Fold these 2 entries.
Entry 1:
Amino acid sequence: MKAKITLAGELKIGEIDRRVFGSFIEHLGRAVYGGIYEPGHPMADENGLRMDVIKMINELGVPVVRYPGGNFVSGYNWEDGVGPLELRPARLELAWGVTEPNKFGTNEFMQWCKKANTAPMMAVNLGTRGPDEARALVEYCNHKSGSKYSDMRIAHGFKDPWDVKLWCLGNEMDGPWQMCAKTAEEYGRTANEAAKMMKWVDASIETVLCGSSSRYMNTFGEWEQKTLEIAYDNVDYVSLHQYYDNHRQDTASFLAKNLDLDDFIYSVICVCDYVKAKKRTKKQINLSFDEWNVWYHSNGAPVERWSVAPNQLEDIYNFEDALVAACMLITLLRHADRVKIACLAQLVNVIAPIFTKTGGGAFRQTIFYPFQAMSKYARGNALKPIIDCPKYDCKDFTDVPYLESVASYDEENEEIALFVVNRSMEEDVQLDISLLGFEDYKAVSFESMDGYNVLEENTFDNEKVKMHSNPLPVEDDKNIVANLKALSFNVIRFKK
Ligand code: AHR
């Protein structure tokens, strides 16, 4: 099959905010205990932080990590997780039916962020608790000294404030599964008052309002509208969450799920701008896509009630999941003008790109690789490629282009990166690449992930599903031609 992609410097979508390569650590399963934190592990540092895991996170390039939940945060008392370890209570954790030992909390997370070369994105409990505890946590984390909570932090051994810039106002507050779920009116008011007081404590912070838990909630759209109408002035972003599955084993539809994601993002932008128009304000609300991934392999796995750090949500990803993750990330970048934060959910063990054995090693899952490649090379402005390619129909969608693509243009370093997924299960694509106005640019690398069975997975012993290098695309005076394998994720880089 033949196709053509044209790139032009004029077709800028928007500057890529590095925070779109964020991720998420929740107190859930073995994300914290046995994941990032395991005192006594041979690779752990003096604070129990697993350095083998941190090394992989650094390879991934994750500038921001959301914490401590997720559903967990809606029942969390942050005070349980600070201060002397021996005084911290174990709690029944109602979101996931387990026991939370509270051996890891806010300060341990902040120390971990520093070691992992990332920034915290903290969530406050607006379920069982409210604005008062939220502003106290901002004071604990960000106020220098001379007040109850800042002095408490200092007494706990942390003289300097943590200076947390990004705060989520609760989690999925429209979901009946959430502790103290709320109506839009209830949540809008609570979030508004919390954000207002949190910003009074520290005017430099940014806040994220909970959008609907997914676009399939009955209240989707109306929830965003009502909550924004109440809280607009005190929030900076609205959140979106979306996970996809292939329960039906319909790969053609699964690979096209990001068409749904694209529509979802567009709808939320429309609601934000509707409220903006209604308020006659210049302030624009941007999007924080703070949970996205493939999630279904682990559904239904039994969990022993009230156990500590059980094997929960431990999806093992395959090759087609990696292609779907690549398409999702491409879609997020295609909205770089409005999607300023995004979190691959989650980071370690729990629906995650990194998988560990408690007491043992760690490996990179298939979804690790497209994320790593895009985090590394997507710099500067996102460019909208003009794509001319054949299309297909499947059960869930019609007119699915075989190619999914976005590019980035780093003006400063004179570098272009083109990211392309070939969804065709049968045919390679002979891709003609045209660089308009980039005449002096030459291809410098061509990496891809291809040649695997859709169900192939990585293991502790064999990370076989990964990126590999290819010969450079063939170039003459007029054309650059690259062969994109059937079912492939491709990264082609050009430099002046
Ligand atoms: O990421 C797993 C869970 O998915 C989170 O706790 C919740 O926010 C979402 O429903």
Entry 2:
Amino acid sequence: MAKQIYIGGTFYPEADAKISVFDHGLLYGDGVFEGLRIYSGKVFRLGEHVQRLFESAKAIWLEIGMTHDEMAEAINTTVAKNGLSDGYVRAIVTRGAGSLGLDPRRCSNPQVIIIADTITLYPQEYYTNGLEIVTVSVIRNHPAALSPRVKSLNYLNNILAKIEGIQAGCIEALMLNHKGEVAECTGDNIFVVKDGKLITPPLDAGILAGVTREAVMDLAQELAIPCVEQVMTKHDVYICDECFLTGSAAEVIPVVKLDSRVLGDGKPGPITKRLTSAFHEMVRS
Ligand code: PXG
């Protein structure tokens, strides 16, 4: 069966799912989005994703025109319509069709688009052996220009960093903030383990408040693994015992090299493995 795409309350087969070329989402990246996971037919932490979507929208003066509950229901209905029990959902809200020119007041009709599909994670070998990443020269957006907490349709900051990583032979890349502190990767948050303690940069390092990051911090508490949000430099990563990334697409993925330096013993570490299996249990319960 063809994929059924939700646009503004109506479902369209993929080939007919179209929006205007005058939509400011396309013309200017003016809009917000969420990427969610479906496990065993249920959307993981749906409430948190919907909340973040509305907060992103509020920060850019975008009126979604639906309640939180209506959005959650639209996402669930899209998942059900597409008969997916495991997969990925992309929820998008654009500013809507306007005229050429930035003025958002010319856009009267925000478009809500929901796509449910399957997703390919990083290749399995990286979960088994760990990722190698590099620090790139592109810094994360300055929070005073565009807060990284807004999951906007303008992902050029992350895409430029990703390109630089790929050119260096790495499929994920570490981004610093304007102060030279560790921020996050292009589509994942970062954690290290040092002396049995989990450390991850605080939100005011200029990062996305990752839903998976939060889930891992919850799991750490349940497993009595100390966890702190603390400013980190590249040095903290170089000297860590273990490192891993979190994201809706990636879940929990070990990192074994940064900037050609071997992290820990160069293999996915015991705490990373414990959190990975606890995460798998959590999403399937
Ligand atoms: N940081 C950034 C910059 C992200 O885009 C995360 C962290 C992790 O957040 P969650 O809530 O997913 O735990 C993200 C989200 C992709 C892709 O195609 C990845 C994300 C978003 C959109 C696309 O790899 N990651």
